[in-house]
């Protein structure tokens, strides 16, 4: 099963080659396939979810490097650890909640502890499904962020997926890549966005409030900023796609230039982006006020994404309302 090329021991993963097609891909499936076609070490593992995890094209194009493990995420992670020790670069796929909480001990002991180049890819982040609590991953960022050696990435959308896959490959260690399922609403024409670990991306500059968002909340934050601008409130918006390592320097800079910082995440307010930013501010002794927008300390209900985001305060109008209230009361 070994397909290592020019790999010395457990190192050598920093110079991974990937095709330009991977960088410019707007879907995860296309990015992974292009990268695999450029590097024979990449293998794909699935847990009976090929279509929703966008790995069917890999399965059909490179069948000898595709391994369907069945609904056995724990075994999938264990197998990936063994494959990584043999020189492969495994990409493991399932829904976010199943590939983190359900298999946390396997991830910790068989991937994170030995710092293996296993890339764990989860779909259906946070509140994004009618299937309810059993399929809603509102604690996965907290779980994975707390593991030593684990990098945690959540790109803003199709415009950043290709770059995120490339950066995950370049990282010499395990990665948790959190993705939304492609909705197939036609060709995405958003300008491609870069991604680098430990580097946030400033999307707009304002002087009144800084909104730090991650994943699907980036687009909502941008819309909220438009609503705030109509009220005379100028907002900075930062895409915090690299949750771990976090761009602590930018957080400190924004704290020094704004009277209010707001984090927005499709995740519990406990342990995710809001907690990571709070830790940076506390370590720096920054006196700026922080408002954390996300799922409160509760389990949600099932429903459409639009319904859930609005009910639990994650939609653009609700974000703008929360920021306006915080500025009035601050």
Task: Kindly describe this structure.
By secondary structure, this protein is an alpha/beta fold. The protein is globular, with a radius of gyration of 19 Å. The model is unreliable at 1-15 (pLDDT under 50). Helix 5 links the parallel strand 3 (89-95) and strand 4. The protein has helices at residues 20-24, 28-38, 56-61, 73-85, 104-112, 140-145, 158-170, 217-230, 248-257, 273-284, 305-311, 316-329; strands at residues 42-46, 66-68, 89-95, 119-123, 151-153, 175-179, 201-204, 209-213, 235-239, 242-244, 260-268, 289-295.
How does the SSE layout of this entry go?
Blueprint: H1 20-24, H2 28-38, E1 42-46, H3 56-61, E2 66-68, H4 73-85, E3 89-95, H5 104-112, E4 119-123, H6 140-145, E5 151-153, H7 158-170, E6 175-179, E7 201-204, E8 209-213, H8 217-230, E9 235-239, E10 242-244, H9 248-257, E11 260-268, H10 273-284, E12 289-295, H11 305-311, H12 316-329
And the CATH topology of the largest domain? Answer: Rossmann fold
Q: What's the total helix number?
A: 12
Could you give the order of the helices and strands?
HHEHEHEHEHEHEEEHEEHEHEHH
Estimated share of beta-strand residues = 15-25%
CATH class of the largest domain: Alpha Beta
* Total domain modules: 2
Q: What's the pLDDT, averaged over the residues?
A: 92
Computed over alpha carbons, the radius of gyration is 19 Å
Biggest β-sheet: strands ordered side by side in the sheet: 2-1-3-4-6-5-10
- Major β-sheet, in short? 7 strands, mixed
Quaternary structure classification? single chain
Label the structural class. Answer: alpha/beta
Q: Tell me the CATH architecture of the largest domain.
A: 3-Layer(aba) Sandwich
The helix fraction, in percent, is: 25-40%
Task: Give the CA-CA distance, first to last residue.
Answer: 60 Å
């Amino acid at each position: 099963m070994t397909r290592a090329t020019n790999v010395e021991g457990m190192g050598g993963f920093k110079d991974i080659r990937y095709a330009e097609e991977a960088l410019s891909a707007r879907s995860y499936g296309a990015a992974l396939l292009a990268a695999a076609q450029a590097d024979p070490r990449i293998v794909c593992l699935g847990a009976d979810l090929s279509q929703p995890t966008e790995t069917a094209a890999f399965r059909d194009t490179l069948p000898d490097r595709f391994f369907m493990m069945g609904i056995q995420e724990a075994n999938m992670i264990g197998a990936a650890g063994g494959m990584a020790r043999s020189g492969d670069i495994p990409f493991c796929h399932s829904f976010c909640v199943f590939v983190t909480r359900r298999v946390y001990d396997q991830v910790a002991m068989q991937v994170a502890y030995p710092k293996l180049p296993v890339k764990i890819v989860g779909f259906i982040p946070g509140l994004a499904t009618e299937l309810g609590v059993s399929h809603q991953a509102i604690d996965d960022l907290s779980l994975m962020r707390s593991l030593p050696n684990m990098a945690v990435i959540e790109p803003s959308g199709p415009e950043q997926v290709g770059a995120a896959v490339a950066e995950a490959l370049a990282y010499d260690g395990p990665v948790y890549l959190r993705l939304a399922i492609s909705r197939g609403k036609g060709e995405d024409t958003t300008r491609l966005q870069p991604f680098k670990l430990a580097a946030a991306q400033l999307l707009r500059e304002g002087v009144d409030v800084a909104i730090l968002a991650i994943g699907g909340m980036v687009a909502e934050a941008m819309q909220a900023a438009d609503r705030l601008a109509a009220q005379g409130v100028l907002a900075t918006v930062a895409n915090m796609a690299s949750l771990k390592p976090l761009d602590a320097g930018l957080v400190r800079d924004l704290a020094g230039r704004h009277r209010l910082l707001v984090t927005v995440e499709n995740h519990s307010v406990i342990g995710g982006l809001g907690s990571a930013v709070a830790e940076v501010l506390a370590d720096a002794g920054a006196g700026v006020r922080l408002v954390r927008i996300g799922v409160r300390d509760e389990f949600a209900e099932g429903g459409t994404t639009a319904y859930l985001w609005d009910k639990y305060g994650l939609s653009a109008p609700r974000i703008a309302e929360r920021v306006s209230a915080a500025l009035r009361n601050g």
